[in-house]
Amino acid sequence: IFHKVSLKVAIADHQLAAGFVQASNFLALGLIISSTVNWVEYETWRGLPSVLMLFFGTQCILLLVTRLRAAVYSRRHQGESLQQAIVAGNTALAIRYSGHVLGTALAMTAGASLVEYYPAESLLSVAYWLGAGTGLALLLPALALIARKAILHNINVAEEVDEQANIGVAAIEAVIYIAIALLLTGVFA
Q1: Which residue range(s) make up the domain with 93?
Q2: How far apart are CA 156 and CA 165, in angstroms?
Q3: For the segment 140-151, what is each residue's pLDDT rounded down to a tens digit?
Q4: How many of the other CB atoms lie within 10 Å of CB of 98?
């Protein structure tokens, strides 16, 4: 997902921010794989194509979220790179990004609760699951924005996180994304 920098090298250089990003990517990966394996009703190799299609589809959504976050960051900071800022050590930015990725992964997995898996129509089932998950992933930022405006009232989150590296504000925004995604999962389960 991070293609301009090497998170592995940054982590080897003891970059905490890169560690947060890598950890959240692995956790999102685990959430998605667990959800897809549990959703597919086969306990044999016959369910593997559906799991793989869902895995790659959700990875595309997570990639899109990363690219959108990078575009927003670049627009706010005269073309600067989100990836470079994280590798440069902005831990607050990494925490906020991690919350967005984990929230999106949780929202995507909530799609499994909305769609029944039909082995005879596995491709259609996968398409419905991806559609439902994508819909919830699109709903997540809107709901998180409402919650953020209420919880972090009169706080310029972009300035606090991006410019001042305020870990507290970043952690609150990350938790808002994760909490809203968990609520979506609970409501639709």
Answers
A1: 7-188
A2: 12
A3: 999 999 999 999
A4: 26
